[in-house]
């Protein structure tokens, strides 16, 4: 059953906290100017070939990864692949326990996975923040003081955790990527027309992606949001929401989709109704999105230089092993490139080689 979206500013209780107490990167750097040099140095490490450890650690590291990776987007799979590849290049001995689930709707399962992971007593835990219950899970880990926590897919620190932060925030800036998409779509639409908002689930990603697009669209009085839905990242929900909106608003001009699976669900509806004139975006630029762009299904996406976040996690662990944990920046935000239906194939191929250089489909360091 479809869930109509509530206004993002009206989220109750913990949901409001999850979306309003983050600090954008520029603001965080203004509050912590020493981070600028750390981030620049670390970015150079990520872009450079691996420098293996000169001496092996005294014991094998335990690393637990809890990912919402059961979805069409290959972001999580590639992140894990590039993470492991870089650990091996750095000659860091490790044992890895990986837990996968569907996004958002498997929060109870993720809680059980977290309990199992902590019982294993890992040295590092890689987790994410999206749904509201993740806040309580993360705070449980922070309160324990161990393992070291890497929060992936979030690059905007939470004010409430500033005194006791995770080891690292790592990922790609949702706001930056969404603004690239919004600028292109709104200009292509002539800064006018109706659009459908397809959020992910209530929480961080919806606010940072869908909320940012809505803010950008609101700058133009002739652009109108006619409907909005939370989809829980379910392509079938996105498909049904799109069909319903097309029926009620045959003059629909644009659809903003907050994730790959959401975009592919909306695309199925557009194709079935022969409404490929409606502008539709992807988010992430993984293999399924690139295929949909090349065959004319999607119009635009923000392509993450995907493997950078896996490499960044491995490099942060290396620095901690050699006594440089204080030199690890609080945030690593990987590069993002705009790809549209007009981008030349050779440029897309170049970006693919760069984005997937350790996870396959590209060159290695």
Automatic annotation (TrEMBL):
Occurrences of domain Periplasmic binding protein (ranges): 63-324
Name used for this protein in its record: Autoinducer 2-binding protein LuxP
Database matches in Pfam families: Peripla_BP_4 (PF13407)
Annotated family: Belongs to the bacterial solute-binding protein 2 family.
InterPro entries reported in the protein's UniProt record: Peripla_BP_I, SBP_2_dom
GO annotation, biological process: transmembrane transport
GO MF term list: carbohydrate binding
The keyword Signal appears for this protein: yes
Keywords of the record: Signal
Keyword Signal carried by entry: yes
PANTHER family tied to this protein: D-ALLOSE-BINDING PERIPLASMIC PROTEIN-RELATED
UniProt xrefs under SUPFAM superfamilies: Periplasmic binding protein-like I (SSF53822)
